[in-house]
Specification:
InterPro entries: AMP-bd_C, AMP-bd_C_sf, AMP-binding_CS, AMP-dep_synth/lig_dom, ANL_N_sf. This is Acyl-CoA synthetase. The longest helix is centred in the N-terminal third of the chain and has 17 residues. The chain is globular and about 65 Å long. By secondary structure, it is an alpha/beta fold. Helix 2 packs across helix 3. The chain contains 17 helices and 27 strands. The strands form 6 sheets. It has a 9-stranded mixed β-sheet, sandwiched between helices. It has 3 domains: about 160 residues, ANL, N-terminal domain (Rossmann fold); about 180 residues, ANL, N-terminal domain (Rossmann fold, 3-Layer(aba) Sandwich); about 100 residues, GMP Synthetase, Chain A, domain 3.
């Protein structure tokens, strides 16, 4: 029997439009045209200007033949042109491919070829890297060079490519930009790190970007005219969708080319920053900055962090400095954060230790995420909610990727059983909050027992001399694997291997104590995540 509520009630353009975050900028420019949208050094851009420049970019791209299904790649730091690309590229129907500026030329070349890039916009600081990558590609994209007046050393590079401002001048600021034909249309492609072979291209759609951007505004309690400081790279999961989120609240983007303590603290003091995101090492930069660099904060600043939970002493330092830290969790495949540690007011009255334990949990699903579970990957059944039984974290909902570009096998594997398999191992607490224990590839199996590298790292962070700790598996003739700890000591602090071993024995079961301690610099990604695959290589793993 037909549903009577569908009879003669078909969707039409008057009551059904594809969801896209591009409408947020349209609205902001219409409602608050004179509100400052972007601060970059001495430059101030209003929402009227931001919208017109984004439309100019879309128009100029369309004039070069770019349209639905075409790829525009960008190799840019956190600068205004990167924000313009997040709107201008999809406004002409194309797909945005933001490239990690810390990658090597070979990896960039692979991404350009795999994504089928037809245009590459590059900051002049990375022009030599881009040129090296283009020497290795099969594609031959048009090269557009962005010359940032805030670039250290200054100067303009006009030796190759088309100047970005000249390119924009070819576009129409009143360009009638394209709404996606379907909200399932791709808005971006982002590549995973590719620690085991070539990186995978994660395809995101307009609907997911729209919903995640709105979820950010709700989860972060963004007020109207919020001021957001860009310490999280925009090339990382499209900056967790915050380039689109800020237009919702008529907020101001404060751009930073480099994540260093001096410009961060200066921006916090000069621009009334209300929100910023970053990995735990960014927090360490803030709290360890010299006293003459730090600025007193006359208001609370919300800091959202992901990756491994920050050490207790860093959390305490951030709280003392005037920051409120919230733990998030997600992946490139979930548009960035899709899990949040929703804080209960009654937890504020707890003693520091139990409060910190609660702060370290990843939490519950974002508002636009339909389902979040910790499951046994073999039976596809949820694990007991006891805070102890290990399982794989899985997602289901509208903020999960379309799939992996040109990789149906990987897509099928990721979506096996109707859930997205994160590859992260965790537990579910009785109150429904999840807590990560490790990546599946980072779990150390010693004599048949699972050892969480995060648990060992947490114990090491309790030692006052430890600034950064990373624990990976090391081959062992008897036990198969045992933990090996890489250590960066805090400035002015000393510690011996024997001292750290004894410290671990006081905080861990004996089989979890690292058998080796290596004191050296620990490699990180551009987003501050520790590269454990590089550490394993150092051990010959």
């Amino acid at each position: 029997m037909a549903n009577p509520f569908n009879t003669d009630l078909a969707p039409n353009p008057a009551n059904f439009q594809p969801l896209t975050p591009l409408t947020f900028l349209d609205r902001a420019a219409s409602v608050m045209p004179d509100q400052v949208a972007i601060i970059h050094g001495a430059r101030r851009s209003t929402y009227r200007e931001f919208y017109r420049r984004s439309r100019r970019l879309a128009s100029a791209l369309a004039n070069r033949g770019m349209g639905r299904g075409d790829t525009v790649s960008v190799l840019l730091p956190n600068v205004p042109s990167m924000l313009e690309a997040h709107y201008g590229v999809p406004m002409c129907g194309a797909v945005l491919h933001a490239i990690n500026t810390r990658l090597d030329a070979k990896t960039i070349a692979f991404q350009l070829d795999h994504a089928g890039a037809r245009i590459l916009i590059v900051d002049s600081e990375w022009l030599s890297l881009a040129s090296e990558a283009l020497d290795l590609t099969e594609v031959a994209p048009l090269l557009i060079v962005y010359n940032d007046p805030e670039q250290p050393g200054g100067g303009r590079d006009t030796s190759s490519g088309v100047d970005y401002e000249s390119f924009l001048a070819q576009g129409n600021p009143d360009y009638a930009w394209l709404i996606p034909k379907d909200e399932w249309d791709a808005i971006s492609i982002s590549y995973t790190s590719g620690t085991t072979g070539n990186p995978k291209g994660v395809v995101s759609h307009h609907r997911g970007a729209y919903l995640l951007a709105q979820g950010n505004a709700l989860i972060a309690s963004l007020p109207r005219y919020a001021v957001y400081l860009w310490t999280l790279p925009m090339f990382h999961c499209n900056g967790w969708c915050f380039p689109w989120t800020m237009s919702l609240v008529f907020g101001t983007h404060v751009c930073l080319r480099q994540v260093r303590p001096e410009p961060i603290w200066q921006a916090l003091g000069d621009h009334g920053v209300t929100h910023l995101c970053g990995a735990p090492p960014v927090m360490s930069l803030l709290v360890s900055a010299a006293h003459d660099v730090r600025r007193p904060l006359d208001h609370r600043v919300d800091f959202f962090t992901a990756a491994a939970p920050p050490p207790e002493k860093v959390l305490a330092g951030m709280e003392a400095a005037g920051f409120n830290v919230t733990q998030l969790y997600g992946l490139t495949e979930t548009y960035g954060p899709a899990v949040v540690n929703e804080w209960h007011a009654e937890w504020d009255s707890l003693a520091p230790e139990p409060r910190t334990r609660l702060k370290a949990r990843q939490g519950v699903r974002y508002t636009p995420l339909e389902q979040l579970e910790v499951m046994n990957p073999d039976t596809m059944e949820p694990v007991p909610r006891d805070g102890e039984t290990l399982g794989e974290v899985m997602f289901r909902g509208n903020v999960v990727m379309k799939g992996y570009f040109r990789n149906p096998e990987a897509t099928a594997k990721a979506f096996a059983g109707g859930w997205f398999h994160s590859g992260d191992l965790g537990v579910m607490h009785p109150d429904g909050y999840i807590q990560l224990k490790d990546r599946s590839k980072d779990i150390i199996i010693s004599g048949g027992e699972n050892i969480s590298s995060i648990e060992v790292e947490d114990a090491l962070y309790k030692h006052p001399a430890v600034a950064i700790a990373a624990v990976v598996a090391m081959a062992h003739d008897t036990w198969g694997e045992t933990p090996c700890a890489f250590i960066e000591l805090a400035e002015g602090q000393t510690a011996t291997e024997e001292e750290l071993e004894q410290h671990c024995r006081s905080n861990l079961a004996a089989y979890k104590v690292p058998r080796r301690f290596v004191f050296e610099s620990i490699p990180r990604t551009a987003t501050g995540k520790i590269q454990k695959n590089e550490l394993r290589k150092r051990l010959g793993g």
